[in-house]
Specification:
- The complex is a heterodimer of chains A (293) and B (275).
- Chain A is mainly alpha-helical and 293 residues long.
- Chain A is built from 12 helices and no strands.
- Chain A folds into 2 domains: 32 residues; 224 residues, MetI-like fold, CATH 1.10.3720.
- The radius of gyration of chain A is 24 Å and the shape is globular.
- With 275 residues, chain B is mainly alpha-helical.
- Helices cover 80% and strands 0% of the residues of chain B.
- Chain B has 2 domains: 42 residues; 171 residues, MetI-like (MetI-like fold, Orthogonal Bundle).
- Chain B has 13 helices and no strands.
- The chains are: A mainly alpha (293), B mainly alpha (275).
- At the A-B interface, helix 1, helix 3, helix 4, helix 5 and helix 6 of A face helix 1, helix 4, helix 5, helix 6 and helix 7 of B.
Chain lengths: 293, 275
């Protein structure tokens, strides 16, 4: 290759990928690596110097009971929301791919919460849980609603689960509809003629062929679940008594409010490892279940 | 047989209508209460408003500095999405057309980086950009969105560009067109459906994002809509009518756009999920 040609190629490479790669490296890769370095220091966010403390931050993570409590709650939240979002999303998609009128209206309605940010949805539901439902509870004497769910630690946790399911199931529904529409009609008709009822068709044909959609949806809901922050802040703000502080919010407060940047970053890094491991296992395990139509 | 079929259809319909109410009712309740006085809401949040009073709206818009934060959100979303789309398409194009070890590695790195949660980056990000005085501006935020948004966009474009036959470009090349001309005149128009998908996914994300702007934009006059809603709720936490009006004004523009683009948005989400 002549050097002229080499420079031409280099020019094209830089022109086309330069801006993206520069932004990508300076915004994602550099902070990620610097973050790993930070976990070995005692930086407080203010002072200009910081010293090397070795594994101290990681040992502190092990000792930080509040961190593990919030991580445990996050895991519980992720497990529940992943199941509920996908069950509701799949159910709605299944109903909407049968013969029914006004499909588009239903579909558009179920998707609506996804257009609006977690902060706004959180405040909206805060009003519903603490005013509307309490009013209904008192007025119609329904015990379970008579006091605000947001004032009770267990119920406040469930408000997060409920609102998250409400928020994201419409999104997954759309992905499931796309998957369901790709299932060959002949296959289902042939099964019907052979005497398979709706349940058998669902169990033996539809579910196995929907594995690729499940992989995508579970992956998306897992990631969103682990990273939830807006809704947590707007709906419960971690309360009552920090009982619903999920891990993202915990790390945020540790770093930016308590100004323990090194320790906060060590916890963020632990979170990264957990998310990476869980999502990789999920994709790996479910890929093995894929079948061809 | 026919009776049971009609019955199942009917039951199905009822179930869907119930779900539909669950998804839409919260929004209706907010609109209803945004027209009421505080005392009216406390005595009965389910009642119809006594009068059609828009006072809450004007007051909320003024207190949230609505027009200003709306413009901030708009500028940030438009620039970020436009730049993510163009830069990522160009990058995916070189990754496909100039396959070498470096590009393969870079592509792998970008795809792998998608697994990193934002929380694992935010602390060093604020530290680095704070120390060089690069925070507190819309442009810094737009720049960061390009960095964070590029991976997924490059990944989606990469899959599509691979399927574009090289002959199309060769013809243009013989005519003496430069790479840049070929890309913008031949390749980019072919990517249009994918571009729609990427635009939609990114608009939904950036318009509604809260955590990153809350770290980057500290000055009140730089606030985006989610940020000003957040501070507004912090300040007027018991004036329910006013708060509900604040929610309505932030939701309405989105719903109006949705009414016209509903089919494209849903199509975009469908396409974006097929990997």
């Amino acid at each position: 290759m002549s050097s002229q040609k080499f420079f031409d190629r280099l020019k094209v490479q830089l022109l086309f990928s330069g801006p993206t790669l520069f932004a990508f490296f300076t915004v994602v890769i550099l902070p990620f690596l610097y973050g790993i370095y930070l976990t070995f220091t005692n930086w407080d966010g203010v002072s200009t110097s910081h010293s090397f403390v070795g594994m101290k931050n990681y040992l502190a993570v092990l000792d930080d009971a509040a961190f593990w409590t919030s991580l445990y709650k996050t895991m519980k939240y992720v497990l529940l929301t992943v199941i509920l979002i996908n069950v509701v999303g799949f159910f709605l998609a299944y109903m909407l791919t049968t013969e029914i009128r006004a499909k588009n209206l239903f579909r558009a309605g179920f998707f609506t919460p996804n257009l609006i940010g977690g902060i706004i949805l959180g405040f909206l539901w805060q009003f519903i849980f603490s005013n509307v439902l309490v009013y209904i509870g008192e007025h119609f004497k329904i015990g379970i609603f008579s006091s605000s769910w947001l004032a009770d630690p267990d119920k406040a946790f469930w408000t997060l689960v409920i609102v998250t399911t409400w928020q994201y199931s419409g999104y997954m529904m759309v992905i499931y509809i796309a998957g369901l529409m790709n299932i060959p009609k002949e296959l289902l008709e042939a099964a019907s003629i052979d005497g398979a009822n709706a349940f058998v068709r669902l169990r033996k044909i539809i579910l196995p062929l929907m594995v690729p959609s499940f992989i995508v949806c579970v992956f998306l809901s897992l990631q969103r679940g682990f990273m939830v922050y807006d809704l947590n802040v707007a709906l419960t703000n971690g309360g009552p008594y920090k009982s619903t502080q999920l891990v993202s919010m915990y790390v945020y407060q540790k770093a930016f409010l308590s100004q323990k940047y090194g320790a906060g970053q060590a916890e963020a890094f632990v979170l990264f490892l957990i998310v990476a491991i869980v999502t990789l296992i999920q994709v790996y395990v479910s890929k093995k279940r894929e079948v061809e139509a | 047989m026919n009776v049971s079929k009609t019955l199942t259809k009917f039951v199905r319909y009822i179930v869907l209508v119930i779900f539909f109410c669950l998804y839409i009712l919260p929004f209706i309740l907010v609109v209803l209460n945004s027209l009421k006085e505080r005392t009216e809401i406390i005595s009965n949040p389910l009642s119809m408003p006594k009068s059609f009073n828009l006072a809450n709206y004007f007051s909320a818009m003024e207190k949230m500095n609505f027009a200003h934060s709306f413009m901030n959100s708009l500028i940030i979303t438009v620039f970020s999405v436009a730049l993510i789309t163009i830069f990522s398409a160009m990058t995916a194009y070189v990754f496909v057309r100039m396959q070498n070890k470096l590009n393969k590695f870079l592509f792998f790195l970008m795809v792998a980086s998608m697994i990193i949660p934002f929380q694992a980056i935010m602390i060093p990000l604020v530290q680095i950009y704070g120390s060089i005085g690069f925070l507190n501006s819309k442009w810094a935020l737009i720049y960061m969105y390009i960095g964070f948004g590029a991976s997924l966009a490059v990944f989606i474009y990469h899959g599509l560009i691979k399927s574009i036959p090289l002959e199309l470009e060769e013809a243009a090349m013989i005519d003496g067109a430069s790479r840049l001309q070929i890309f913008f005149q031949v390749v980019f128009p072919l990517l249009k459906p994918t571009t729609m998908t990427i635009v939609i996914l990114n608009v939904l994300w950036i318009w509604n994002d809260f955590l990153l702007p809350s770290l980057v934009l500290i000055k009140p006059e730089e606030r985006t809509l989610p940020l000003s809603t957040f501070y507004f709720f912090g300040t007027y936490s018991v004036d329910y009518g006013l708060l509900m009006a604040g929610l309505v004004v932030t939701i309405i523009p989105v719903i109006i756009v949705y009414l016209f683009t509903q089919r494209y948005i849903i199509q975009g989400v469908m396409n974006g999920s097929i990997k």
